[in-house]
Amino acid sequence: MHPDLFYMQILFLGSLVLAAHFGGKITRHLRIGEVVGQVLGGVVVGPLLILLLEQRFPAYREALASLHFFTFVFLSIIAFGIGEELSLENLRQVGKEALIMCLVEAFFTWIVITATFFALGFKPMVALIVGSIGIATAPAATFVIMNKLEIGGKMRSVLGGIVVLDDVVEVIVFSIICQAALLLQKGSALTAGGLIVPVSSEFFFAIVVGAGIFLALRLTVEHRLLQPAGERGTGGPALGPEFLSRLVTETPRPSVEALIIVAGFVSLGVGLSLHWHLPFLITAVTAGILIANLYSKEVFQSLRVENATSLYTLVFFALIGANAKLECFHPENLKFVAAYVIARGVGKMGGSYLGCVITKQEKRLSKTLPRLMLPQAGVAAVEAYFVATVMGESGKQILGIILPGLIVFEIVGILSSERALIKWKAMMSGGRGFMDEDAEMRNALTKEGINLADLIRPDCLEAPLRVRSKGEAIWQLVHNLHSAGYITKPGRVLEIILERERQGGTTLGEGISILHGRLPNLREPVVAMGIISNREEVYFNGNRERPVDIVYLVLSPLDNPRLHLQVLAAIARFLSNLEARKELKKAGNPHEAMEVIRRFGGKA
Questions:
Q1: What is the DSSP secondary structure assignment for residue 66, as one 8-state letter?
Q2: Helical spans, DSSP H, in 248-330
Q3: Each residue of 377-404: pLDDT tens digit?
Q4: Domain, as residue range, for 204
Q5: Beta 526-532 vs 456-465: how paired, if at all?
Q6: 81 and 157 belong to one structural domain
């Protein structure tokens, strides 16, 4: 290696890290996301400095080129992580509705973008590649906003399921089209035999290499490596419902040691795939799927080591910007960038709304979800860079469209997501945006049809309910439903209830709280109730309100939101009767409480 190149690599890397770091801090302060600043920091250190320095320091461009490999390593690790979401357990939790919504949105977006660029005169294969890259969605910034606003529940689970499946669909579609495009570049015939057979064989061998990565990790990563050294072999007694309530929302801390092993074997396998001209993303995803289903999902926790990931994500996005061409931002190219932004915006928002309509989602979700699908970053950026590397001028043209579009979508997408989630928070907290559901609740109150006595499970009615805290009360009601055989996964139910509580309290005043949530695979509504002993003062929202005396837990089928509202309306109607509330609080045992419910419950 020439000494000048060695010096320039050190100079370039130091400049890149600093520019990306401070660029990210500036754009984060401006509330347009760190990713935008990191990419723009790379643009400053890359093409702008090359323009100024190349005449005096020709090795500077070569130093930049020598770090290209890192983007492929990072994307391979991302693709490996995607495999976690294709475990059978995760697919069952995502549910059929989210899968349908994702497929509708993804293919609608692909068709809109592809048709747009085909109409602009692009070659069919180039238009198909641009369309496939447009499918990818970047959820990171959106989830940061969700955490800040303390939003969980259905919005979080639906969005998480859709964006992860989005990236799975995108990786598969992109890999198929890209392999076909590379074969056409080599002179293969545009026929079924000329493309389908070679592409299928390359996918088969990519899967074989992925299986090899799985076997290597399976034999190397031991369970003891999946926990920090200070926690290995430790244990202790269960400390009660309050601790359980907290623990179910936490994730185990990952292991740097396992991260090193995973990164090493994934890099080896992907390097072989690239050498043999195989779809390297399929190799990485295959390894992830096999690990998730046949070994341990705890392996994936090692990909989320905060101190490590913050560094390599910064370098990754900075390198994306550094490898941009100034021609990307040329006015003549802006019309194609604008076409991409408009087509992808229409595809994402229109496809998401169509998916919500097809799966009959509630109105507030249909209005909010499409605006959360706009952000785009990592996967799209590195795929654009990949095609720029392997497809010559056509690939460079794709990069010139995707990179400025990515910056636009990060800025616009984050702003759109934040406003949509603030509105969602207002709706979930009973703000004015909740009017549609309020109207349905009022309609349910005025219609007869549900008898409260038929809803309350006598074996889940506890009077007195002897608890000393909110967490203990929630756990006890969940435990009662589980013991009676109405639910099978109490931990999952507890998590859903706690997520709903973080969205907005369910205390109604007058010493009443109605905890509620909706579950997949639940056949009919179930209701548990507890009358807290007069000797205990249990506050659900601190000491700002009077202690809770009556607490309900309502669970309804996920696919029937109207029935959920009708059940809540039945309870609301019963509790609106002052005499019924007084009699219920006097009940000394479940039998007396049930008699009060039968006497005042009636139809609601």
A1: T
A2: 256-275, 280-294, 306-322
A3: 667 877 887 888 788 888 888 888 888 8
A4: 71-229+238-428
A5: parallel
A6: yes
- As for how many domains the chain has, the answer is 3
- Residues 564 and 568: their CA atoms lie apart, in Å, by 6
**Highest mean pLDDT: which of 22-36, 198-212, 318-332?**
198-212
Q: CA dist 155 to 161, 201, 407, Å?
A: 10, 40, 25
Specify the pairing of strand 526-532 against strand 550-557. antiparallel
My answer on whether omega of the bond before 464 falls inside 30° of 0, hence cis, is yes
Question: 43 and 24, same structural domain?
Answer: yes
* Mean pLDDT to the nearest integer, 498-515: 71
- Report d(CA 488, CA 323) in Å as an integer: 52
Contact 164, 135 (CB under 8 A): no
| Alpha carbons 171 and 169: distance in angstroms, whole number | 6
CB atoms within 10 A of CB 355: 26
Please indicate, yes or no, whether residues 242 and 388 belong to a single structural domain of this protein.
yes
Of residues 102 and 167, more confidence is placed in 102
In tens, the pLDDT along 105-150 reads 999 999 999 999 999 999 999 999 999 999 988 765 566 566 556 5
Query: How many angstroms separate the CA atoms of 328 and 401, rounded?
Result: 7
Please give the Cα distance from 322 to 426 (Å, whole number): 41
| Residue 586 structure tokens | 């006097």
For 518, the 3-state DSSP assignment is strand
Q: Which amino acid is at 206?
A: A
Which amino acid does the sequence have at 101? M
Per the model's pLDDT, the better-predicted residue between 165 and 292 turns out to be 292
Please determine, for residue 55, whether its predicted confidence score (pLDDT) is greater than 90. no
pLDDT class of 208 with cuts at 50, 70, 90: very high
The amino acid at residue 291 is I
Q: Which residues pair with 471 in a beta bridge?
A: none
Do residues 45 and 103 share a domain?
no
User: Which residues sit opposite 461 in a β-bridge?
Assistant: 529
The residues that bridge with 451 in the sheet, in sequence order, are 603
CB count in 10 Å sphere of residue 489? 13
Other residues' Cβ atoms within 10 Å of the Cβ of residue 430: 12
Mean pLDDT estimate for the chain: 77
Which H or E run includes 330?
none
List, in order, residues 6 or more apart from 452 with CB less than 8 Å away.
Answer: 570, 571, 573, 574, 597, 601, 602, 604
